[in-house]
Amino acid sequence: MTPYFEGVSPRIAHLHCWSKSHPTVMDGLVAMVLFVAALPQLLSARSPGRGFAKPDLINLVIVAVIMVALAFRQRYPFAVLVVAAGGNAVLAALHYSPSVAEVLAFVIAVFTVAAHRALAVSSVGGALALVAFMVMELATPGEMSYVGVVTNTALIAGVWWLGRSLRLRRAYLAELEYRAERLERARDSDARTARVEERSRIARELHDVVAHHVSVMTVQAGAARRIMDKDPGTAREAMVTIEDVGRTTLDEMRRIVGVLRTERDTAAVGPELSPQPGVQEVGALVDHVRETGLSVQLWMEGEPRPLSTGVNLAAYRLIQEALTNSLKHAGPQARAWVRIHYSPRELMVEIEDDGRGVAAALAENGDSPGHGLVGMRERVALYGGELRIGPRSGGGFEVRARFPLD
User: How much is the pTM?
Assistant: First the structure.
């Protein structure tokens, strides 16, 4: 349902949509109502007087032709105007008394041409309507009323202008809808591009993690081979380490495949084989942010437990991105808080600040946040977590993430 029908009952909206898709049926109903309204005058046995001819079969047929043509006014506006104008002019020339139904059909035809055709065609239609009206006035029996001529001419011109205004407004609304759709497509495209770029970056980081694990496995395997005969116990421990690291590597490989399920990472993979940063480096990160001018406090709660390399890296990047946003947008006097809470089944990460810049930036961007926030969502979703990003009660901004540790 379009925004124009917000607050309107579904039945009325459905009726409007149906009438738009069946214009001939609705116009036919209007023409039928007008024809029925004209029948008492057309079938009357009394003479209309003032020099008008008595209604007969010719009068009835001409009016019927005008009403039938009116049923196709939206499909053939100019042709319907020609029929309505010509029919009314013929009725006036034959000195038949005009009825309200015929005049309304003529006025509706003028309005339809102005509302449904371009300026050139509608201008010709308006001129034709004025010519037909003058013929009707000159052919009407009795003395011509100049006041009536001026009034009726102004009426026709006003109806034509009303139709043109409706057409211009409809074109303006159509242009607004087109621009809104184009902006929506552009915004979706930007969001998809941001997700693809972030997934490629995550995949490269996970590639470094996997490469490090493979290096550990290779070193452990070589050590186990050398001491297998001399120290079987130590060799067995090395094999257990290889097994554990191998399982972790397989998990990370599955995540890499999941991240790249729609796009292929064509960027060159860096040679760095050292482990990526994790929660244990958050203290150094906070110290670095403090040096740049943002006051940051860090809390570590709960019993620390080993984290998978991927979750460890995701939590670190989340804190890094949130503090970077606070540093950029929160303001020079703002403060930030970082809380890392360990529980038996999940890791909670919370970053808050009391500035107003990040919330204002989000409000300006609407539903199109920056690439950093898109990256946060991608990282948390990759490990089955939950993320909340938004304004903080009492002012400021907050980022809360939950990573399951099962």
Answer: 0.45
Beta strand 295-301 pairing with 335-342? parallel
* pLDDT 10s digits, 260-310: 555 444 444 444 444 568 888 899 888 888 877 788 999 999 888 888 878
- C-alpha to C-alpha distance for 226 and 215, rounded to whole angstroms: 17
CA nearest neighbour of 140 among 86, 106, 107, 95 = 95
